[in-house]
Amino acid sequence: MPPRSHPTVRQVRLGAELRKLREAAGLKARDVAAFLTSTSAQMSHVEAGVAAVSAQRIRSLAAHYACADEALIDALVAMAADRARGWWDEYRGVLPRVYSDVAEAEHHAAFMRDVVINYVPGLLQTPDYARALFRYMNPEFPENEVDLRVGHRMKRRVVIKGDNPTPYTSIVHEMALRIRVSDRHVSRAQLQQILDHIEQGRVTVRVIPTDQDGFAGAGASMMYLGGPVPQLDTWLRDGPTGVVFIDADAQMKRLRALFHKVEAASLNPTASRDFIHRLAKEL
Question: Dihedral of the CA atoms 142, 148, 151, 155 (nearest 10)?
Fold first, then answer.
């Protein structure tokens, strides 16, 4: 099978985790290639996510690396076996790859937590709110390009709908709820949709009020996607060049600590719901 020309973030992550296991075992790629009667180039392709790897080979590698974490091994095998196409694949080659990568990551998440300071989180946005954002940030886009992005964002909401929604907690700053990206009507509808999601038990929303003392986390926007095991957790952060996927242990530990600091500055879910009700009545 020829190498993949455009591996997904999930495929790259599988290869990276196999590389971590090899390095933890103190083995060189060429030594493992010899064990598998393969080549160093093939090992490099597997660990870069550009070559597929079978469940049997993953278990053989785990045994060779003396990895006794059965939950992690099973999770890696499941990642390799899952080759089904998702709704996001229709957007590959149509929108930038990060759109599909984010949707795929959300689809596979065991839980989701995010912190948003400037805007209502994408998973909670109404079509009108999302459209106003895309139009403002990309005034040169023709209407069909805006439609594509709005459509993709609305389809992402599938993870918080249905009979078995993914557990989702969003910490939102008061300013994100007050900023009118469009007009009063769109802002009121946006707040009402958030309240509807809360009342239906689909999401947990916590608000950081502007008068909260000691909150210096204005740059703390992030999304935490829980994996089937903690080693496969992923963080997403918006950087100057776009969304960055983070899975390095040290960085994930730092971001978990930052998330808990931000969470401690937020109102509890009941107080947050009441807070959003009051904001909606002001409009």
Answer: -160
